[in-house]
Design brief:
Blueprint: E1 5-8, E2 13-16, E3 24-29, H1 40-58, E4 62-67, H2 85-93, H3 97-114, H4 129-143, E5 144-147, E6 150-153, E7 188-193, E8 211-213, H5 215-227, E9 231-237, H6 244-256, E10 269-275, E11 278-280, H7 295-300, H8 305-313, E12 321-323, H9 325-342, H10 357-371, H11 376-387, H12 394-408, H13 431-446, H14 450-462, E13 466-468, E14 476-478
Parallel strand pairs: 3-4, 3-9, 9-10, 11-12
Antiparallel strand pairs: 1-2, 5-6, 6-7, 7-8, 13-14
Amino acid sequence: MSELKLFNSLTREIEPFVPVHEGEARVYSCGPTVYNYQHIGNMRAYVFADTLGRTLQYKGYKLTHVINITDVGHLTSDADEGEDKMEKMAATQGKSAWDIAAFYQADFENDLARLGIQKKQHPRATEYVEEMIEWGKAMADKHCYELDSGLYFDISTVADYGRLARAVTEEGEGRIEKLEGKRNAGDFAIWRKTPEGETRQMEWDSPWGKGAPGWHLECSVMGEKLLGFPFDIHTGGIDHREIHHPNEIAQNQAFCGCGGLSEARNSGANIWMHNNFLVERSGKMSKSSGEFLRLQLLVDKGFHPLSYRLMCLQAHYRSELEFSWEGLEAALTRLKRMVIAVERVKDVVSEPMAEHQKFAAPLAKFDEAISDDLGTPVALTALEEALAVKKVAPEIKRAVIEHMDAVLGLNLFGLTREELRIRPVSAEITEDEIEDALARRKAARAEKDFATSDAIRDELIAKGVDVMDGDPLGWEWKL
């Protein structure tokens, strides 16, 4: 196998993966704030993190992977401004913040499962508030100061603040405005006091008054408690690279008494990895737009969730990915071709992979691609080359495909081509009605009754059914 190399956002270099603990890989991924449904841009981060975890397992490491759940502390602005997102949604819906968190966490975890994302640990921030208070106590004297609104971290007290964001040379902190009383514009809240005369649904007693922890603190605390410092890899969306992760790193340095960031381990993790944005031109990505693009919308329009996973894998995680319905349909068609190819070996039992000359090239190509900073676009072509290999033992072919799909997570042996048909929930015709019409049409064509055949096809088209006669394994359709 090739050596696994990953791009470290902290050093801006491709680096070999060297585990902190031999034979183990410990990964922390920034999870969602569960105040609303997650749009598909959020979900790209978890497809990436899952692919990373699967790759580490493919390389033989025992994986421990944590995705936290933010159910307190995240304000409507990343810059310590606005209302707590959880409290605001609870007030809007007339429910408790705890109920809001439970509902949207369950929806998020359902989306993870539908995207083939392996189950991880999902600790909630509210389960670690006492530990957050202890962290605050440990940092307060040397690194923090109090204002009427709470306890704030002084970023000038740690070395190399903002190196991850390259704040000096890149636009990193430009969206933070200096608030009255802060020593530095980038200083951030460790603890927010509940304003006098107000009551929060989620609040705790602390040395700095009754209130709630700052958003950035939870990831530091849970990362250290669950994985130990330093752990191997910390992931998140590229937007976290500018504020959230630099603040997290500063806390880690302060708590551990670490030095500067010329040694990556002082940041709390040896490698920091960030996926790029999903770009969507229509404006429907925004939660404020009403019907924003969430996974359920894709399903409602008839697309299998794994077509979106494949769409993500077709682009490198560090590249922008543009979403379009046409692009999603193309990914679905590609996935369907893979599933059709797999059907030929679906009923055999795989044997341990033996060396086979016909698979040597695609296996080497796959390993080199996935080892080179998760090169999934090339890995997918290697998979397709393996699927195209002919005149080999089906048991070995199945083993090779399973070997690759374990990394890509497309569930090729669990899917059927029928599940990949485009079937919007709004369709007025049922699947049974379509199949019955197609059976009558096939019979008419067999009897060379083309008038009846054409009439049935026109009837189906009028109901939104596109019949694809050229499908080599039997007529296919989509709505």
